[in-house]
Design goal:
By secondary structure, the chain is α+β, with helices and mostly antiparallel strands. It has 20 helices and 23 strands. A hairpin with a 2-residue loop joins β8 and β9.
């Protein structure tokens, strides 16, 4: 049998502009001349810059403050860290500002490149890296926790007396604003080289990161390279900061709207309402030789094309732009199932389904049940809920099949996901009713008070909420669905009132209290403990005020796993972590929506990485270019 598409050798191989078809009717030979349909021409309207549509705007342009995907997307085109992810891999790392590194228990020693400079020509060295890392610590913004897991102020640790930490913060801010980081004095060098530093200068081109002083306690953190690959560990120019507001225990207005880094791009223009344009830096440091010497290192390569991002909130317009060739790609963050099918049929569009790890990184979702609020104080009610949900129906109806089931707390595709292979909770209405009958609220009455259910008014989630409402009514649980407008409101719900300490989700805020609701997590960096520290640890941000799951064994296992690199130990720890939550019915682990890379067929050179480089941008886009037009 011939492969599909292979020509029959007896087929006439002459290609002409028209096709002659011979029709024999009643012995009469008739020639019918048919015009061949013109071939589809797939030309981008712009090949340099490459233009992209994305719905969200960056939260800030300061790498030590940004805490959103579009924010990370732009800053990592301009700023660089010591290391970054190795191409499509997410457990291996390549040197960026560092040339090499060694590990010795609690300490990572980085030897820095000697030829790096900022786009203004200012030099990069270990003093600049010391400034940058301590700036990120003392600013104490949302992403600062990534460093504060393991590092703190000199001579102290995260749990030191509050007054001591406040005094050390003020002292450090003074140093950051007054030291020379080009030619430091001997006393300034003595401060930076002191052994009590979390970030210790060894010499001009060597810096040592000493772990064990952050909120994880005295552990040699096993995923440090992943943690410092993101914007929070980026190098910023001390001279620029000092000349424009300096370092404070807060945000810097100038740095929030201006960018100057060591990366392959410079900002040509930025408009918070319409979009931005990035141009290749003509004086980029790696062009002098490093990039050619390390062709395998995609992160440090010079940019091939300019990048223009248009803030486009209309999915209809974005799809039309994609199909017409007006844009080179669109963010998959807001392209729903119907748009995916539409784009798949477009002749000039590549729609590539990505591995489940991309969906996990973008966000895995679950239904929390607060164990401090009835009826979820009863384990039988929680068991009834997880078995009453028609997961397959939700995936078919709300996601058009573009979603996967999972078992938490570590998401699919990550190391140490569900080591025992536990099956996702079964949709079994009979079993759900049986569990409800063993609870304090048996059927047919069930739990009569109505309960507010919180969901995010985004994409398909209202439909999910309606389906869930119908499912739970069958087991005597009445939920009233209450939509909140955006992710920021969900983050607010996760927190505590700074005055009373009360969980905001359990107050009347935005229509609460919400003893049950939609919850999710999206990765700050790719490691299993980034998830367990948030949705399994008793004081984790996605658990504390939502599921309110408290288990001392769990807390010990989460911290223990974060500080271990022995694979057998990690398998044991994560097996226990997963089993504890599974048997407790802490959450109804719902879905991981599938993610797609959507590019015009003319676009070449994408290097996908689960930390977001499939679009929207997180890893640098320096390898992108458009193939020549036919």
């Amino acid at each position: 049998m011939r492969p599909i598409g292979e020509r029959n050798p007896r087929t006439v191989r002459l290609v002409v502009a028209v096709v002659a078809i011979v029709i024999i009717v009643a012995g009469i030979v008739t020639f019918v001349i048919l015009n061949r349909p013109p071939a589809t021409v797939c030309n981008l309207s712009s090949t340099d810059p490459l233009i992209f549509d994305q719905p969200e705007t960056p939260d800030t342009l300061d790498p030590h403050v940004t805490f959103s995907t579009p924010g990370w997307g732009i800053v990592q085109q301009v700023y660089q860290s010591l290391v970054n992810y190795n191409g499509t891999g997410y457990t291996k790392f390549v040197p960026v500002l560092a040339k090499s590194w060694t590990v010795n228990g609690f300490n990572y020693t980085f030897v820095l490149r000697r030829d790096v400079h900022f786009s203004n020509g200012h030099v990069f060295n270990a003093y600049v890296m010391w400034f940058s890392l301590y700036r990120a610590i003392v600013m104490n913004q949302a992403g600062s926790f990534i460093l504060q897991e393991n590092f703190w102020l000199p001579g102290l640790n995260y749990y030191s007396d509050a007054n001591d930490s406040a005094n050390a913060t003020a002292w450090m801010i003074s140093n950051l604003n007054s030291f020379s980081f080009t030619n430091p004095t001997a006393p300034q060098l003595a401060v930076m080289m002191d052994g009590n530093n979390s970030f210790q200068v060894i010499d001009q081109y060597t810096i040592k990161l000493n772990m064990g002083f952050g909120y994880l306690g005295t552990v040699a953190y096993g995923n440090l390279l992943a943690a410092i690959a993101g914007p929070i560990a980026s190098a910023v120019d001390p001279a620029v900061v000092q000349a424009n507001g300096g370092v404070i225990n807060d945000t810097n207005k100038y740095m929030a709207t201006h960018m100057l880094g060591t990366g392959p791009y410079v900002v040509q223009s930025f408009n918070a309402a319409t979009g931005y344009l990035l141009k290749p830096d003509p004086n980029y440091w790696a062009k002098a030789g490093d990039a050619a010497a390390e062709p395998w290192n995609n992160i440090i390569q010079p940019a091939k094309a300019s990048i223009q991002v248009n803030f486009q909130t209309s999915a209809i317009t974005a799809v039309a732009d994609m199909k017409s060739g007006s844009v080179a790609g669109v963010s998959f963050a807001y392209v729903g199932p119907s748009q995916i099918n539409d784009l798949k049929a477009a002749p000039c569009v590549q729609v590539n389904l990505l591995n489940v790890v991309y969906g996990s990184t973008a966000g895995a979702w679950w239904i929390y049940m607060n164990q401090n609020a009835p009826p979820f104080t009863d384990i039988h009610v929680r068991a009834a809920v997880v078995h009453a949900i028609d997961y397959g129906g939700i995936i078919r109806t709300a996601f058009n099949g573009f979603a996967d089931r999972w078992v938490g707390p570590v998401p699919p595709g990550y190391e140490h996901y569900n080591p025992q292979g536990l099956q996702p909770y079964e949709f079994n209405l009979a079993l759900a009713m049986q569990e409800m009958n063993q609870s304090a609220w048996p059927l047919p009455t069930g739990y009569t008070p109505h309960i507010n259910y919180m969901y995010l008014k985004l994409g398909d989630w209202e439909q999910v909420a309606l389906l869930l409402q119908a499912d739970l009514l069958k087991i005597g649980i009445h939920i009233d669905i209450v939509g909140i407008q955006n992710i920021d409101e969900l983050y607010t719900e996760q927190g505590r009132d700074p005055t009373t300490g009360e969980c905001i989700s359990q107050t009347s805020f935005k229509g609460g209290p919400f003893p049950i609701g939609q919850e999710f997590y999206t990765s700050d960096y790719i490691s299993p403990d980034d998830w367990t520290q948030n949705n399994a640890l008793s004081y984790g941000s996605a658990n504390d005020c939502m599921s309110a799951y408290v288990n001392d064994t769990m807390d010990r296992l989460v911290i223990e796993a974060a500080g271990d690199t022995n694979q057998a130990n990690l398998t044991s720890d994560y097996s226990q972590i997963t089993r504890l939550m599974y048997d407790n019915y802490t959450n109804a682990w719902l879905v991981v929506p599938q993610q797609f890379q959507i590019l015009h067929v003319q676009v070449q050179g994408p290097v996908t990485n689960p930390m977001g480089a499939a679009l929207p941008f997180v890893i640098v886009q320096n390898t992108l270019y458009a193939a020549p037009r036919p």
